[in-house]
Amino acid sequence: MVLQPSLKNCLWLPCVLRTPKAGFRSAASGSLIIQSVSNDVYQNLAVEDWIHDHMDLEKRQVLFLWRNSPAVVIGRHQNPWQECNLRLLRQKNIKLARRRSGGGTVYHDLGNINLTFFTTRKKYERMENLKLVVRALKALRPQLDVRVTDRYDILLDRHYKISGTAAKLGRTSAYHHCTLLCNTDKFVLSSVLQSPYTGLKSNATPSVPASVKNLFEEDPSLTSEMLLDAIAKEYATHHQIDHHITLINPADETLLPGINNKTKELQTWEWVYGKTPKFSVSTCLNMAYKDSVHEVKVNMDVKHGRIEVCNIDLPEQWLPPALYSDLVRSLTGSKFCPNETTTRVTTLLRACPQDDELHSKWNLLCENMIMLM
Amino acid sequence: VCTHRVRSCSSIRSVKSKYVCVFDKSALKFSHQQRLLRTSAVSCGQIVQFKLSDIGEGITEVTIKEWYIKEGDSVSQFDSICEVQSDKASVTISSRYDGIIRKLHYSIDEIAFVGKPLVDIEIDASKGVASEEDVVETPPMSHEEHTHQEIKGHKTLATPAVRRLAMENNIKLSEVVGTGKDNRILKEDILNYLAKQTGAILPPSPKAEIIPPLPKSQTVPKDKARKIPVPVSRPIMFSGEDKTEPVTGFQKAMVKIMRAALNIPHFGYCDEIDLTQLVHLREELKPLAEIRGVKLSFMPFFIKAASLGLLQYPILNASLDENCQNVTYKASHNIGVAMDTEQGLIVPNVKNVQVCSVFDIAAELNRLQSLGSAGQLGTSDLTGGTFTLSNIGTIGGTYAKPVILPPEVAIGALGKIQALPRFNGKGEVIKAQVMNVSWSADHRVIDGATMARFSNLWKSYVENPASMLLDLK
């Protein structure tokens, strides 16, 4: 345990010293290229956190290359209900992650590569990084029409977005990460990034939708591996280091002490959903019961992912008042989450009088409410 | 109180103005004592306006997205104060001082300006003012934080208070493991280090750190190690505190149901079941079920046996109305299996067990279990149950006293399966697979004899699975 502080800074020396020729040159400029062996979005985001918190970037900058199995990643201050189709994500078992940098929502799969540029806060410079990426692409395929916009996007053929950017600045270090679409499933991308939830009002950062295109569509000979390699090569040239990519395992607690805690934290409900800025839901349920259709207005305020205030405008005496107030009391303070709500409402039902009609009304109302989440 | 304008030296203002702009570096040349004499006359702390420093890339304004502190909180140097966002960049602003937050200049979603005050912090004047940086309108980020202690090329972060504590105890900060943010050394780390040194046993801190035992190579020579170590008589400070939190929504619902359950006069009936034959049968059938894509546990057998028993004793599958006027005999055997989840106790049920085969039940249980672990059970899966089995034995225990879940009238709890010695018919001792079952029933409508007979029937099916074949519908 006492090794910890020394590990922090001497960490990369063993890796660098492995290639003796490179060691000397690397020590001069110090920069490092690392690639994750994992495709787990939480583990990879945890590596970013770890480097940001623990590495001394004064003498060396780091380029981190990573890819994820299907996941939707929202920005630090975004609202997942607004940004994506959570029902579809749950059905298709696509993970949802909230990163610590700002910006908008992205869909990741193995056809998309992620690049993170770690520097000290002073040396934080996004434009330079993106120009490096463009240089790498042009070196690989000179005929590609790729350019950087002033919104820090990379456009292909002046029209299609192939890369989005986000950044995180801390006290002494900073990172800028961006995506690069090589061969992502555009069909899944567009369906998961479309929110079916209506009536949401919030100050969360909205995403700006854009037309996207895969580099693979432009040139079918391109693969993610080739792109990763080209970018690493350009980075190595720019930083005058050897074109050597060090592989790291984000589950290795010896190499990255404390990483597993960071990974766990990124998966907690409190982080993914609870960090959503305050928002309100104002919508109308159309409930068809027997021969009539009721329009039921629902208003909810959600803070920290939990329902702060809940108002359901039911027709009078549709539900016994005691039951209605039980429902509202139970929802207030609970997570804006279908699973938790289902558990609560079904438990409450046990304490109700055993009346089939009452039960069907209750189930109808609760299922409609759960659909909002 | 001395006030200094930014970049100008020592123009001493009148005592009335409370706010102090950050000291210019050159001002430190003046003797501290002089200034302190004047400050101590007025207030115990100086209010410092902490200004929003440069973000880089020529950015002049940001949006406040989250406050990590509120007015009145005490902060240490390097604690995170707030999160701001500017054009896809999220920035964590950390405190430059130890002190108490006295004012937040912005609320969430407001625009904050670089170079303008962000928060007011009251710093303890008696501590003296550690080296600050000047906060100018567009500060260059060329100077580093001065309070790092460069030891052996490592940056050891610690507040002045912690460093004093280390110095008083003759501890080298480089030997202490920091557990705070950025590996910062906290007061607890110094205390833990001290504890390890003296062998004293400190009670667990609120963070519940487990102090690992010293590896053998570090212990004293063998003869001394045999003696019982005498703890150093250090006053043991227990820093744990009671924690009160409101009853959660789910607990509220449980409170309501349990109150209703309290109105049910429960009686219990327990028995011991020999599962030896069932264990063998399951071993035989498991691969067959797997070929069909279904995991076969013991529960499908228990559930089917219960349903067969309910056919003979339908009162156990009934419901009593609120006024105890009417008993409704439910036609469907919707047998619930209690599941413990993060959200709380849920009881998904298998519908119409009376027309399901054991395999059907197993498949349905698989479906409910995978939905349950994914947190995707729907309301229809969780409502409409008529009879419940609780497999508490997977966690442990033998006999239990389960509580009936309204609106049902009976419940069974199954303990763990243990290999125990029992006598067979010939008086020989054999190894038997034994499980205990504990039933609870509503004594208003169910009498002891009925419960006993149902239990015996269930037991006979489960102990002798072949007999189920005779009565399967």
From TrEMBL, chain A:
Which reaction is the catalytic activity of this chain?
N(6)-[(R)-lipoyl]-L-lysyl-[glycine-cleavage complex H protein] + L-lysyl-[lipoyl-carrier protein] = L-lysyl-[glycine-cleavage complex H protein] + N(6)-[(R)-lipoyl]-L-lysyl-[lipoyl-carrier protein]; (R)-lipoyl-5'-AMP + L-lysyl-[lipoyl-carrier protein] = N(6)-[(R)-lipoyl]-L-lysyl-[lipoyl-carrier protein] + AMP + 2 H(+)
EC number, UniProt record = 2.3.1.200
What is a GO molecular function of this protein? lipoyltransferase activity
Gene behind this protein: Lipt1
State the organism of origin.
Calyptomena viridis (Lesser green broadbill)
> What keywords sit in the KW lines?
Acyltransferase, Mitochondrion, Transferase, Transit peptide
Q: Which family does it belong to?
A: Belongs to the LplA family.
- Give the BPL/LPL catalytic domain ranges: 57-243
> Which InterPro entries does its entry note?
aa-tRNA-synth_II/BPL/LPL (IPR045864), BPL_LPL_catalytic (IPR004143), LipoylTrfase_LipoateP_Ligase (IPR004562)
- Pathway annotation from the record: Protein modification; protein lipoylation via exogenous pathway; protein N(6)-(lipoyl)lysine from lipoate: step 2/2
Any one cellular-component term (Gene Ontology): mitochondrion
PROSITE patterns associated with the record: BPL_LPL_CATALYTIC
Pfam families referenced in this protein's UniProt entry, alphabetically: LplA-B_cat
Q: State the Gene3D superfamilies in the record.
A: Bira Bifunctional Protein, Domain 2, CO dehydrogenase flavoprotein, C-terminal domain
Q: What subcellular compartments does it reside in?
A: Mitochondrion
Report the protein name in the record. Answer: Lipoyl amidotransferase LIPT1, mitochondrial
Any one of the GO BP annotations: protein lipoylation
Q: What class of enzyme is it?
A: transferase
- Where does it primarily localize? mitochondrion
What the protein does comes down to: Lipoyl amidotransferase that catalyzes the transfer of lipoyl moieties from lipoyl-protein H of the glycine cleavage system (lipoyl-GCSH) to E2 subunits of the pyruvate dehydrogenase complex (PDCE2). Unable to catalyze the transfer of octanoyl from octanoyl-GCSH to PDCE2. In vitro, it is also able to catalyze the transfer of the lipoyl group from lipoyl-AMP to the specific lysine residue of lipoyl domains of lipoate-dependent enzymes but this reaction may not be physiologically relevant.
UniProtKB/TrEMBL annotation, chain B:
List the record's Gene Ontology CC terms alphabetically. cytosol; mitochondrial matrix
Q: Give me the reactions it catalyses.
A: N(6)-[(R)-dihydrolipoyl]-L-lysyl-[protein] + 2-methylpropanoyl-CoA = N(6)-[(R)-S(8)-2-methylpropanoyldihydrolipoyl]-L-lysyl-[protein] + CoA
A GO molecular-function descriptor: lipoic acid binding
Its EC number(s): 2.3.1.-
Where do the record's region annotations for Disordered lie?
130-154, 206-225
**Compartment annotation:** Mitochondrion matrix
Q: Which residues form the Lipoyl-binding domain?
A: 47-122
User: Which residue intervals are annotated with compositional bias (Basic and acidic residues) in the record?
Assistant: 142-153
Give cofactor(s), names only: (R)-lipoate
- Its primary localisation, in coarse terms, equals mitochondrion
Name of the top EC class for this enzyme: transferase
The Peripheral subunit-binding (PSBD) domain extends over 157-194
The record's Pfam families line, in alphabetical order, gives:
2-oxoacid_dh, Biotin_lipoyl, E3_binding
Q: Which UniProt keywords apply?
A: Acetylation, Acyltransferase, Lipoyl, Mitochondrion, Phosphoprotein, Transferase, Transit peptide
- What is the stated purpose of this protein? The branched-chain alpha-keto dehydrogenase complex catalyzes the overall conversion of alpha-keto acids to acyl-CoA and CO(2). It contains multiple copies of three enzymatic components: branched-chain alpha-keto acid decarboxylase (E1), lipoamide acyltransferase (E2) and lipoamide dehydrogenase (E3). Within this complex, the catalytic function of this enzyme is to accept, and to transfer to coenzyme A, acyl groups that are generated by the branched-chain alpha-keto acid decarboxylase component.
Protein family according to the UniProt entry: Belongs to the 2-oxoacid dehydrogenase family.
The name on file for this protein is: Dihydrolipoamide acetyltransferase component of pyruvate dehydrogenase complex
Could you tell me which species this protein originates from? Calyptomena viridis
- Name of the coding gene: Dbt
